[in-house]
Amino acid sequence: MGKTHYDMKYSQYACLDDLPLAPYSQDTWIISNKDVSYLHCHNSLEIVYWVEGEGKFLIENKEYLISQGDICVLCPKVMHQSYVNNDNISRCKYLYIDLERFQTMYPLEIDKFECLKYHSPEFVNIIRKENCLELVSILLSIFQEIEQKPFNYQASVLSRTSLLLIEILRKQEYSIHNYSDNYGGKFVIAASIDYMNVHFAEDISTEQLAFVCHMSVTNYRRVFKKIMQISPMMYLNRLRIEKACECLFLTNDTVLAISEQVGYKSICSFNNNFRKFLNCSPQQWRTNTRISRIK
């Protein structure tokens, strides 16, 4: 590969009306043999079941091999891309889970649930075939319930999704243990990420974010970058662009109105930052996304 810089894109997948999930389970989803020119992210937890073939995942500039029977788990907002580097094809099934909406619809207390919301270097992204038989069984049963829609299938899917998330967390034993050892038994920057998710449209300083985490500014910057692999302000800027994409995708509001809704004081700044992250203008992204949705 050799490439160290990639364009970034934000992909929006609309959940089902009655469930916090976006399933893509058809056998026609094929990973093509293309050079990776960009990384993308989603606002949902992404679970990929590699049905056939072999390939690779590029996750935050780290490369992982994946093959038939493996599962890849990607936290919201983690930059990634999948590809194959030979003439063979690979087939995958995808499930996207809106974690916030899931917690609202199925308010179950799941210990260490926050580990699924925020990517860290220790997160176990690739779960090998021999270690994920239970995961695959639950995942396929969710696809089956959604496809066949038997009586009370919504309740069944929600309960199975909770089992799926618990099983994923069990595969993160090293990651959770590492959090406890290094950060006093809690995910110390979670409060600042939650703060940004609520107040992203307001003026936010690094000092405010450090304050809500009860940390010094210097230590907060260091810990945040170690965990998230980007600076707090870069994360905030990326969050604003993702929120803008949601508005561009779901509403007919003007680009100017959306730029103000997500916290930009000038349309010029919004356009420049949007192009920096997604390599196109907001209007181009809206047009291209809606065309691809129709197809």
Topology:
Layout: E1 7-10, E2 21-24, E3 30-31, E4 38-41, E5 45-52, E6 54-59, E7 62-67, E8 71-74, E9 80-83, E10 90-97, H1 99-105, E11 126-127, H2 133-148, H3 153-170, H4 173-182, H5 190-199, H6 206-212, H7 217-228, H8 232-250, H9 255-261, H10 267-278, H11 282-294
Parallel strand pairs: 1-4
Antiparallel strand pairs: 2-10, 3-10, 5-8, 5-10, 6-7, 6-9, 8-11
Helix pairs in contact: 2-3, 5-6, 6-7, 8-11
What do these coordinates show?
The protein has helices at 99-105, 133-148, 153-170, 173-182, 190-199, 206-212, 217-228, 232-250, 255-261, 267-278, 282-294, and strands at 7-10, 21-24, 30-31, 38-41, 45-52, 54-59, 62-67, 71-74, 80-83, 90-97, 126-127. Helix 6 (206-212) crosses helix 7 (217-228). Mean pLDDT is 85; it is low at 179-186. The radius of gyration is 19 Å and the shape is globular. By secondary structure, the protein is α+β, with helices and mostly antiparallel strands. 29% of the residues are buried. Helix content is 44%, strand content 18%. The protein is built from 11 helices and 11 strands.
Short description:
By secondary structure, this protein is α+β, with helices and mostly antiparallel strands. Helices cover 44% and strands 18% of the residues. It contains eleven helices and eleven strands.
